[in-house]
Structure formats: C-alpha cells, structure tokens
Amino acid sequence: MKIIIIGGVAGGATTAARIRRSDEKAEIILLEKGKYISYANCGLPYYIGGVIKEREKLFVQTPEAFSTRFRVDVRTENEVIFIDRKRKTVTVRQSSEDTYEESYDKLLISTGASPVRPPYRELI
Known about the structure:
- By secondary structure, this protein is of the alpha/beta class.
- It has a domain at 2-77: FAD/NAD(P)-binding domain (3-Layer(bba) Sandwich), CATH 3.50.50.
- Helices cover 22% and strands 30% of the residues.
- It has 3 helices and 7 strands, in the order βαβααβββββ.
- The strands form 2 sheets. It has a 4-stranded parallel beta sheet with strand order 3-2-1-7, with helices on one face.
- A hairpin with a 4-residue loop joins strand 4 and strand 5.
C-alpha cells in the first residue's frame, strides 16, 4: 500500500511513524512544504520568552534521521498544489518550481491551520 502524507511536524510525522509501526511493508511518502518536518512545539513559549536562545534548538528530528529510522520517503520543500481524488494522484511543486505527479492508495492531509484572530476591542 502506498500512503502519501501531506504535512510534517506533529500530525504528519507522528502519523508516518505510527503507520510504519503497524505496517512494515507500506510505502510511505511524507511531503512537507517547508524545510523542517519536526520541531518541539512545547518549546515555543521558551523560545519566545528567551529561555531557549537558538531557534535551531527547537528542531528535534532531521528529515534524514526520520527517513532512516522509520523508512519513510521524506520530501521537504515539496508542496502539494493539486489533488485528483478520482485518479488518486497529487501534483507536487518542488522548490525549483518543477512539478511532478505522485499516485497513492491512501492520502492523509495534515497541514495544520491558521488561527482565527478576533478583532481587538478595548474594554471600557
């Protein structure tokens, strides 16, 4: 079975590791738009507060180490720009602006979300 996971960090990388533990034979491809697939979310307040001085200290897993440990094809700087559900394919744009198509049996989307920021109102 070929599984494509769109998005890394907590959701995508954790799911890839979980799938690997339950299925040794699955072909797992993790596509991440950014350069990093994992960082310490719980450390963000410490970074913002200045306790952790270097941003790089938040990156706990490199794509190469994750790939080796879990036998996952990790592709950073690969952005999914189109999903064809009927054909079961995704179109991917690389950082070079080249595109390619990848087929899948199962697709998992773990891209996160943007916060909703209500308008600021001063309390009287």
